[in-house]
Design goal:
By secondary structure, the chain is of the alpha+beta class. It folds into three domains: 64 residues, Uridine Diphospho-n-acetylenolpyruvylglucosamine Reductase, domain 2, CATH 3.30.43.10; 113 residues, Uridine Diphospho-n-acetylenolpyruvylglucosamine Reductase, domain 3 (2-Layer Sandwich); 105 residues, Alpha-Beta Complex (Uridine Diphospho-n-acetylenolpyruvylglucosamine Reductase, domain 1). It has eight helices and 20 strands. The strands form six sheets. The chain has a five-stranded antiparallel beta sheet with strand order 6-7-12-10-11, with no helix packed on it. Strands 1-2-5-3 form a four-stranded mixed beta sheet, with no helix packed on it. It is globular, with a radius of gyration of 20 Å.
Amino acid sequence: MIIQEHFSLKQHNSFHFDIYADYFSAPQNEEEIIEVLSDIKFKDLPLFVLGAGSNVLFKSDFKGLIIKPDIQSIRLIDENEQSIWVEIGAGVDWDHFVQWSVEKGYFGIENLSLIPGNVGACPVQNIGAYGVEVMDVITQVNGIYLDTLEPFSFKNKECKFSYRNSIFKNGLKGKTIITSVQFLLHKQGILKTDYRGINEELEKLGETNLANVRKAIVHIRESKLPDPQTTGNAGSFFKNPVVDKDTAAKILAAFPEAPYYVVDNQHTKIPAAWMIDQSGWKGKAMGNVAVHDKQALVLINKTGKANGNEILTLAAEIQQSVKSKFGIEIEKEVNVI
């Protein structure tokens, strides 16, 4: 098992911060993961499990061990006339899995196209977009407890999914390493195209079908979001706040043009991007960092020379502006290390 020392993380975090980990390992199966974690050399060192580095912000060099699971398996578990169950390794690129699913004609995750990251990270954050959350299709999450090195398998309900949240982000944060995720996909499905912009793109493509929904969403995301390969960013930096109906009513009374999405009878989602834009931050720069000029949820390493603390300073300024204008505290979506 190869363990590298003083390892550069510049290509392993989507902000492209020039930082280093004392130790780095990319095990390719569960046995190699256990081998690394069993090494007494790392017993008392800080440990961080890294996916694609697309939803993480490092404030400085990491003085410990980083494990990046590189399990690349795609395995059929079961199927019937209507559905298929698959198990996907934690190291598989998320959008590669979405593309594979669409090419096979399986419905369920097409609206999650082009979300950066690896499969192993998707349950942690309960990734979502265009009216779909990954919790809608996950049946089981498999992994290893870091303290005992014993395996676990959590069914969907045991994962305690909620909006951009799960047990892996709360009660089990820093206590597990996910090795694979099982999904239920469908051979026939109802396409969700009611989110803004999708139907307009589908009209250009001429037909509403599974492949074209993916194409439409890829085009929308590419037109709004900077490519992390060229402009360092972590996608959506803030969560969209879900507020109670009274708070939503006050905001809509003061700002009748405000976009909103009804979550249930008691809660409404107000887009953070709109509030950030209304607070005057869209396209604004602060030294090496900036708010993207096409999507206010995205903070960017504008010059390529920024560090994590500069991004956090910008984020704090934005949070204060939004709170002053709307009375709402927007939360960071990224994982700060």
